[in-house]
């Protein structure tokens, strides 16, 4: 099964803080995604990428930046964290269209 | 933006009965419809999917139906067991490339023994 890891698993920061969430997949998947999960909203796509150096804007991108440095690594950056960004963040990867997206274990972020 | 509506948000059934979850989508170009199951404290995992060239797919007690004219698809779990208790998400592929998925808001299924 595809392996997707995320770090940190839990993070607490203050309003205005700078946070970087990391995701690594070791299956040479082309596509990687960042989602946030909130009760009543399901999974919402923040940013995604087709490959190293590529970045696509998702459905809820405001307040987030992302960078895909290698085939394996995809980072989500919150440069001025706000309490509204308190959420459970999932990274996912897939090889191509119509294929299963494999999710990482999630990062729970709290912004005080 | 594009949305996928999922109902009901909470579903309680008796063990052995069937459970049905319904989703509707907006984009007529959507052509891939996966279903994910998320157990408490875990990540979502794919349980079944259907492409737009099919109307019905069945695997291991799960049935997915797709009505492209109505832009509606549904998951039916037959002979539910307590282990089926979880959050279920439907999704539809967004327009364009990149395998972008638009997820529904989820259904919390509780199967009572």
By DSSP, the count of extended strands of chain A is 11
Termini Cα gap of chain A: 36 Å
The residue fraction in helices of chain B comes out at under 10%
Order of helices and strands of chain A: EEEEEEEEEEE
Biggest β-sheet of chain B, characterized? 6 strands, mixed
Give the radius of gyration of chain A. Answer: 13 Å
Describe this structure in words.
The complex is a heterodimer of chains A (112) and B (113). With 112 residues, chain A is an all-beta fold. Chain A has strands spanning 4-7, 10-13, 19-25, 31-38, 42-49, 56-57, 65-68, 73-78, 87-94, 102-103, 107-111. In chain A, the strands form two sheets. In chain A, strands 2, 4, 5, 6, 9, 10 and 11 form a seven-stranded mixed sheet that branches. Chain B has 113 residues and is mostly beta strands. Chain B is built from no helices and eleven strands. In chain B, strands 2, 4, 5, 9, 10 and 11 form a six-stranded mixed sheet that branches. A five-stranded antiparallel sheet of chain B has the order 1-3-8-7-6, with no helix packed on it.
């Amino acid at each position: 099964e595809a392996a997707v890891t995320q770090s940190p698993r839990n993070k607490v920061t203050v309003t205005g803080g700078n946070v970087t969430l990391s995701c690594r997949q070791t299956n040479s998947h082309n596509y990687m995604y960042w989602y946030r999960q909130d009760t009543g909203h399901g999974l919402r796509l923040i940013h995604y990428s087709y490959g190293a150096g590529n970045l696509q804007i998702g459905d809820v991108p405001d307040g987030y930046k992302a960078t895909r440095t290698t085939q394996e690594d995809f980072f989500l950056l919150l440069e001025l964290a706000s309490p509204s960004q308190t959420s459970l963040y999932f990274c996912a990867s897939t090889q191509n269209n119509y294929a299963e997206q494999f999710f990482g274990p999630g990062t729970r972020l709290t912004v005080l | 933006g594009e949305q996928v509506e999922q109902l009901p948000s909470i579903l309680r059934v008796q063990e052995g009965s069937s459970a049905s979850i319904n989703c509707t989508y907006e984009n007529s170009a959507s052509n891939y419809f996966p279903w994910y199951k998320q157990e408490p404290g875990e990540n979502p995992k794919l349980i079944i999917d259907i492409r737009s060239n099919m109307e019905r797919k069945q695997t291991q007690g799960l049935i997915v139906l797709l009505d492209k004219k109505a832009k509606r698809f549904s998951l039916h779990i037959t002979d539910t067991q307590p282990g089926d208790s979880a959050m279920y998400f439907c999704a539809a592929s967004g327009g364009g490339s990149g395998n972008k998925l638009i997820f529904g808001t989820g259904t919390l299924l509780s199967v009572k023994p």
